[in-house]
Design goal:
The protein is an alpha/beta fold. Helices cover about 40% and strands about 15% of the residues. Strand 3, helix 4 and strand 4 form a beta-alpha-beta unit. Helix 3 runs parallel beside helix 4. The chain is globular.
Length: about 375
């Protein structure tokens, strides 16, 4: 039986074209990019061409793009640099960030390197910008604001421009975890007031283990990983050449067909909302699902009972892949810190469905049918 994969916010299938672009760098073109002979120079050229391509798509300078091992490393690097190199003494974040941000800011706050506060959220999970401004105004020391562009569990989108302008006004550093939006939205960095953004290749049909950190050219930071002089002395370690090639190729493909693919994926989500409303009367949607929301993510809660408590397991038995929250909590119902923060209802079970261009309307129908049988 074919599997239905509705967990594209956790990771996506690698595109065949991406694999084809990567393969030569796993086989014949294996040179170390730091080697001076031709094998090495070919790898170096491929990396720099990838950087140029990524920079062009995101409207940044190539010098502002650093390749990393993924979203987690990019988030860690930005937060560490803001504290260590940019004199940030207070962090403003939100309780619904990915753990790659949340655990990092908590670590620095626990070590007494900085103080930490969270912005208020509206009932549907949006950041309260008035509260953000109040918090910025109440701190004399420089602040780091780290807020995600799109929430990976409920899909809510942040207004990067509005937050960036506030940060500018209060001389704060602004980092945004854009892992769920790079490759899914047009991001124009030259015209977005942000100091750091993080992206990850495996969220848009690229390879796992390769991401980017954008560092605005006006910001000067020290490396997070020490060692060799790779990534212009900013990120030591022999480059993940095929990962980098794959990241750039995947971003190119995502951009090339963006309008039609995003419209198609949005129609899957809309169809699922309508079907669920018509089939499961007690269904509850989490977040601002039809407003400022990722077109790829739909989070629902259903009343808790003996059957629904086992829902992810039963979906799996029916060859349907979905998750309870972020990927880290898939399969085990440990509860989600995001759902707890916006709606602490212990009598509900939450399921996140997330879609890609490879999903179909028939799959949506099938999943809704199975779900309604289960609960
Ligand atoms: C919003 C968000 N940030 C960060 C990450 C971590 O990215 P990576 O898996 O590339 O380390 C993820 C992945 O689940 C994510 O969804």
């Amino acid at each position: 039986m074919n599997r239905i994969y509705f967990d594209n916010a956790a990771t996506t299938a690698l595109d065949k074209e991406v694999l084809d672009a990567m393969l030569p760098f796993m086989t014949t073109n294996f040179g170390n990019p730091s080697s001076i002979y031709s094998y090495g120079r070919e790898s170096r050229l491929a990396i720099e061409n990838s950087r140029k391509s990524v920079a062009r798509i995101l409207n940044a300078n190539p010098g502002e793009i650093f390749f990393t091992s993924g979203g987690t490393e990019s988030n860690n690097t930005a937060i560490c640099a803001a504290i260590r190199d940019l004199n940030c003494k207070h962090i403003i974040s939100s309780p619904i960030e990915h753990h790659a941000v949340l655990h990092t800011v908590e670590y620095y706050a626990c070590n007494k390197d900085v103080t930490l506060s969270f912005v208020k959220l509206s009932d549907d999970g949006h950041v309260d910008l008035d509260d953000l401004e109040k918090q910025l105004a109440s701190h004399e020391d420089r602040c780091l604001v780290t807020l995600m562009h799109a929430n990976n569990e409920i899909g809510n989108l942040l207004d990067l421009h509005a937050v960036g302008e506030l940060c500018k006004e209060y001389n704060a550093i602004f980092h945004s975890d854009c892992v769920q939006t790079v490759g899914h939205y047009n991001i124009d960095l030259r015209n977005t007031p942000v100091h750091f953004i993080s992206g990850s290749g495996h969220k848009f049909h690229g390879p796992k283990g390769c991401g980017i950190l954008y560092v605005n050219e006006n910001v000067k930071i020290h490396p997070f990983i020490m060692g060799g002089g790779q990534e212009r002395n900013m990120r030591a370690g022999t480059e993940n050449v095929y990962g980098i090639i794959g990241f750039a190729k995947a971003l190119e493909l995502a951009t090339r067909n963006h309008d039609e693919e995003s419209e198609y994926i949005r129609s899957l989500k809309d169809h699922m909302i309508t079907k669920l409303e018509n089939t499961i009367p007690d269904i509850q949607f989490n977040g601002d699902i039809t407003g400022e929301s990722l077109y790829t993510v739909l989070s629902v809660s259903v009343p808790k009972n003996e059957k629904s408590e086992m829902v992810l397991y039963n979906l799996d038995i029916n060859h349907i892949c979905a998750s309870g929250g972020s990927a880290c909590t898939s399969g085990a119902d440990q509860g989600s810190h995001v759902i707890r923060a916006i709606n602490n209802n212990p009598n509900k079970v939450t399921i996140r469905f997330s879609f890609s261009k490879y999903n179909t309307m028939e799959e949506v129908d099938k999943v809704v049918e199975k779900l309604s049988e289960m609960i």
